[in-house]
Amino acid sequence: MTPVSRHVQVRVPATSANLGSGFDSVGLALEYFDELNFTLCADPANRNAQVIIHGEGENTLPRDETHLVVSTFRRACQTFGLDRYGFILETENRIPQARGMGSSAEAIVAGIAAAAAFAQDGEINRAAIFELAASIEGHPDNVAPAVYGGLTVSWDMDLPEGTGSVAIPGSEPLHKGFHTATYAVNPAVMASVFIPSFELSTEQARQVLPDMVPYRNAMYNVSRVGLLPGALSPAALTGTRDPNALLYAATQDRLHQQYRKDLMLPSWQLIEILRAHGYAAAVSGAGPCVVVLHYGDDHEAIEALASAHLASGQWRVLHLPVNTTGVMVER
């Protein structure tokens, strides 16, 4: 297949997954982006990738076919029927690596979105991008908001062995595999993200999780995660409950954070300080970033509570709106 363009620019938002109670299912897109430029080589004999990196990871990320964006782009090109082309990838990375802000999800979504934009005119097929990204990542909670924006709740549809889909009256069949639902978020919601200087791999964070949890803890999280879409919704400010109180309850967790706290004690200490003062603080993704969800401009109060962490020189903070667009491409 001949590409429809020789140049594609991709913009992918950072994400924060789990949000306390929504372990491996809930994700939120943030107004903070990596920007990537793909330019196909004019020489058909040149099938190599040249990678130029600016910003986060410029001294650590590979610059060959092992780069996650490159390997994902190659795989997606095969899926969309594109021939193998040489290309130049130039990135402006802002999302911190291995901190819990979705850098791996960003790389996967960017590679797939670029391949889709080279393969076809018009709007990109977000459903196709999500399905391939989720299958590569294996955990859709970060890739879903990167694709769609806003708040997403994702799941792996479990159907009987040998059944590929199930008929839904009046609707398309529900297929086996990954799915996501998107929810609108109140524009007054802000996410304050505290970023430490140290990293934590997702694999390491998963190794400390138990194989089983007490039934009461599972029920605890079910009740809290059910609050999240409502606590973040456009209607939250019109209800009788204080929306910040709803956010606080909705981010309570007994499934994963308590088992991981020893891997990131400074993060856990910051969460305890913020939650002791009523703020909806949680580990962002697998950590070690800390995300604080709140309504209104509480930036100064939140920074004051975190003053000791910030004064150490090992932490910085971003105050970010919620992103509503997801991945964007420009040919």
Quick tags:
Ribosomal Protein S5, domain 2; Alpha-Beta Plaits; seven-stranded mixed sheet; 13 strands; 27% strand; globular
Written overview of the protein:
- It is a single chain.
- It is built from twelve helices and 13 strands.
- With 331 residues, it is α+β, with helices and mostly antiparallel strands.
- It has two domains: 7-157 and 324-330, 2-Layer Sandwich (Ribosomal Protein S5, domain 2), CATH 3.30.230; 189-321, Alpha-Beta Plaits (2-Layer Sandwich), CATH 3.30.70.
- α2 (103-119) crosses α4 (140-148) and α3 runs antiparallel to α4.
- The protein is globular, with a radius of gyration of 20 Å.
- The two termini are 17 Å apart.
- The relative contact order is 0.19.
**What is the number of helices?**
12
Number of strands: 13
Estimated structural class: alpha+beta
CATH class of the largest domain: Alpha Beta
- Global morphology: globular
Proportion of residues in helical segments: 25-40%
Summarize the structure.
With 331 residues, this protein is of the alpha+beta class. Helix content is 33%, strand content 27%. The protein has twelve helices and 13 strands.
